[in-house]
Amino acid sequence: MRRSDMHQFLDEADGIGLLLTRNIERAASLVSSFKQVAVDRASSQRRRFGPRCRDPGKH
Fold first, then answer.
1. Least C-beta-crowded within 10 Å: which of 7, 30, 36, 52?
2. Better-scored residue on pLDDT, 35 or 44
């Protein structure tokens, strides 16, 4: 293997590593956003349905 081949390989590997890191960070951000939306949605559903709940002691 020539030195230039090794340098090219290392440069490509570095670029691939940066691409992977960026995509993993984006995926983590999307998962976090999805979780927040799910929490917000569940919270709004509880607020929306809370006043409609009847007291179990009163029939």
1. 52
2. 35
